[in-house]
Amino acid sequence: MIGRRGCIGLGTIAALLALWFVLTTVTGAVSGGRFPSPADFWVSLQQIFTRGYAGERLASHALHSVKLVAMGFIVAVATGVPLGLWMGWSRRAEAAVNPVFLIVRPIPPLAWIPLAILWLGLGDAAKIMVIWFAAFVPSVINAFTGVRNIDRPLLEAALMLGTPRWRMVREVIVPAALPMIFTGLRLSLQASWTTLVAAELVGALVGVGFVLNMAQQDIYPGMILVGMVTVGILGWATTLLLASVESRALAWNTAARD
């Protein structure tokens, strides 16, 4: 059953759709060359669903983009979270790695595109590399912060009990840092989608970003909006999936608060 907040959200969406229809169709205050009307959007959506656009149908473009995001995100999590935990736990590791990380961290992910193309060509590997970097930084920072925010008495108690190092990491550090780790994963996922669209604007033959690039060249506002909405829906769906994983992983935390 939809709650009060859900009703407010649906009302906001309905109001925006009504405003879109009025401005583009009823009054013509916004011309179709600047922003598509609902009818233009529907025609474009039908075209890419049935006949295809930019060489493929929407399902193929969306599936390819999801695959790239998933691969880049998974690699970023597999490398960034352990590095952040290590830096947070070991002062020596922080002293050794953090200076390099502080130099690399401010570099925008899109700045890596030329280098990624030189190293890996115009294929998917270059795009995965750029997505990996975009998702890598938040995962490192939040895992590091999660460890550093652990209450010192908790760590001292575990050390006094003679807990082995591997059990300390598995049963104390990781569970305590998990809320911050998932915060980093949400930021990493968002960065992955943002970077994917930009990466697919260069050297792609399929994908939602490629659809946006071709629609821009064709001056096709309806298809541009279809691509934008597709990215939004895919990002929303993957965020819900991550939230489901988070709720399962942090069930103990929710029970403790209750």
Compact summary:
80% of the residues lie in helices and 0% in strands. The chain has 258 residues and is an all-alpha fold.
The radius of gyration is: 22 Å
Q: Return the CATH class.
A: Mainly Alpha
- Stated plainly, the CATH topology is called MetI-like fold
Number of helices: 11
**Quaternary class:** single chain
Which key features would you list for this structure?
258 residues; mainly alpha; MetI-like fold; 0% strand; globular
Strand and helix map with partners:
Blueprint: H1 4-26, H2 38-50, H3 58-89, H4 91-104, H5 113-120, H6 124-148, H7 152-160, H8 165-200, H9 208-217, H10 221-249, H11 251-257
What would your notes on this structure say?
With 258 residues, the protein is mainly α. Helices cover 80% and strands 0% of the residues. The protein contains eleven helices and no strands. The radius of gyration is 22 Å and the shape is globular.
